[in-house]
Amino acid sequence: MWTKTAMLLIVQVKTQKHRGLRLPIPVWVVDEVFMALTNLAWVGEIALKHIPLPRDEKDRKHLNWVKTFSPSGIISVAHAVSKDLRKYKGLDVVDVKSGDIQVKISLR
User: Record's superkingdom (predicted)?
Assistant: First the structure.
């Protein structure tokens, strides 16, 4: 029997002219997405290590950035931050209002 309630990430988008959109996303889904993105980024890093740097300076800068910093590391840090935010149930993570559009992301 399931007695625990699932923690949700509530994404709300409201405009003055239209009805608002409210998406409840379970936090475990967010965790799975972050884990999958971390694994995909790691595979991409391994593949990019075997590609030689291009001669074009602009393309070289883009590829060099990926080889210097770890995209999978950046995603895993974002995953750790999302895990730490779980302690604060009822927290409004994002609350932005610009013109007639309002976006609110909260933990429930």
Answer: Bacteria
How many angstroms separate the CA atoms of 77 and 75, rounded? 5
Write the single-letter amino acid at 11. V
DSSP 8-state symbol, 12:
E
In the chain, at which residue ranges do the beta strands (DSSP E only) sit? 8-15, 21-26, 92-98, 101-107
Q: How many CB atoms lie within 10 A of CB 38?
A: 19
| Separation CA 31–CA 78 (nearest Å) | 10
Locus of tokens 């990926």: 66
Number of Cβ within a 10 Å radius of residue 7: 13
Query: Do the beta carbons of residue 25 and residue 9 sit within 8 Å?
Result: yes
What are the respective helix, strand and coil percentages of the chain, to the nearest 5? 45, 25, 30
Q: Measuring CA to CA, which residue among 46, 75, 70, 48 is closest to residue 59? A: 48
Token readout for 15 is 């405009």
